[in-house]
Design brief:
This protein is an alpha/beta fold. The chain has helices at about 1-10, 10-30, 35-40, 60-70, 85-100, 115-125, 145-155, 165-175, 185-190, 190-205, 215-225, 245-250, 275-280; strands at about 45-50, 75-80, 105-110, 135, 160, 180-185, 210, 235-240, 260-265. A nine-stranded mixed β-sheet has the order 2-3-4-5-6-7-8-1-9. Helix 5 links the parallel strand 2 and strand 3. The longest helix has 21 residues, at about 10-30. The protein is globular, with a radius of gyration of 19 Å.
């Protein structure tokens, strides 16, 4: 890790190292005959999840149908995208979703870095009456001073970190940016080895952590093992209905949320196996 970061920084090198790191942890746990959670040190049996998806492009009626499906599937927390051309549109969409999910489910919103500081301040103020659990990535990931100023201006939790690939960047977000929820993508930060260290830094500062990464069941399972092995877990992101042919085919096991939770696989290692015959069908 030290050598490659010196040579090329983060980016694709860190993605490759993360795949190797996760694979090596999986191998060690399989050799030991333990689930990865138990190899690292189990902190909990289950982790709460929230329904997530890419939905900024959906019309309001389509978004409403999607959220209705999440509620019917038993999700007790949901996240939608914000950052429409008009803040009034965001208000209408957030208000609609809050009516659908009721007052007791958690509602997160994700701006995907679309705002500058004045816009983020105004959006946080206007949307906070809808009981927003967190506002995610309102600013560029490296705008640490902007995050600090936003945190000082609102009582809404600010979540960020999914773009980071080094512990130093996380320290900047936590100490300088004063974020409230530390989001870690195992595939971007270098795997379990680095993610455990980042979680420890957040624990030292009294901050909860959540994962980012919702594409394949391998990503989600890896995140679950990590979250179940650390003391300061908040919640797990899970795309509720991206059941594409690719996603459903490439692993032998499938994950489904029930009553707001995902059960972690108990088999040795990650507890999830690649279906190599299925992967062969997708090669180009």
């Amino acid at each position: 890790m030290r050598h490659k970061l010196r040579e090329s920084g983060g980016g694709i090198s860190t993605l490759a190292m993360a795949a190797i790191d996760i694979g090596l942890w999986d191998r060690e746990a399989r050799i030991a005959g333990l689930s990865l959670t138990d190899l690292i040190g189990r902190q909990r049996e289950t982790t709460a999840v929230y329904g997530s998806g890419v939905n900024r492009h959906l019309a309001l009626d389509e978004l409403s149908e999607q959220v209705h499906r999440w509620v019917e599937a038993g999700h007790t927390a949901v996240k939608i995208k914000v950052g429409q051309p008009s803040l009034d549109e965001d208000v209408e969409r957030v208000a609609t979703v809050r009516r659908i999910i009721g007052p007791h489910r958690l509602l997160m919103i994700d701006a995907n870095q679309l705002w500058d500081l004045p816009t983020a301040r105004r959006a946080a103020r206007v949307l906070s009456p809808f009981d927003i659990f967190w506002l995610e990535e309102p600013l560029r990931p490296d705008d640490y001073d902007g995050y600090r100023k936003l945190a000082e201006a609102t009582e809404v939790r600010i979540a960020a970190g999914e773009e980071e690939s080094s512990r130093l960047a996380y320290l900047e977000l936590m100490d300088r940016g004063r974020i409230d929820v530390v989001q870690v993508d195992l595939t971007r930060c270098g795997g379990f080895t680095e993610a455990m260290k980042i979680a420890a830094l957040a624990w030292d500062r009294g901050l909860p952590v959540a994962n980012h990464g919702f594409t394949t069941y391998i990503n989600v399972t890896a995140a679950l093992h990590w979250l179940n092995s650390i003391p300061n877990t908040l919640i797990c992101e899970f795309v509720a209905e991206e059941e594409t042919n690719l996603r459903e085919s490439i692993t032998r096991q499938k994950l489904r949320a029930r009553d707001g939770y995902l059960e972690i696989p108990q088999e040795p290692g990650l507890g999830i196996d690649v279906d190599w015959d299925a992967i062969a069908k997708f090669r180009v």
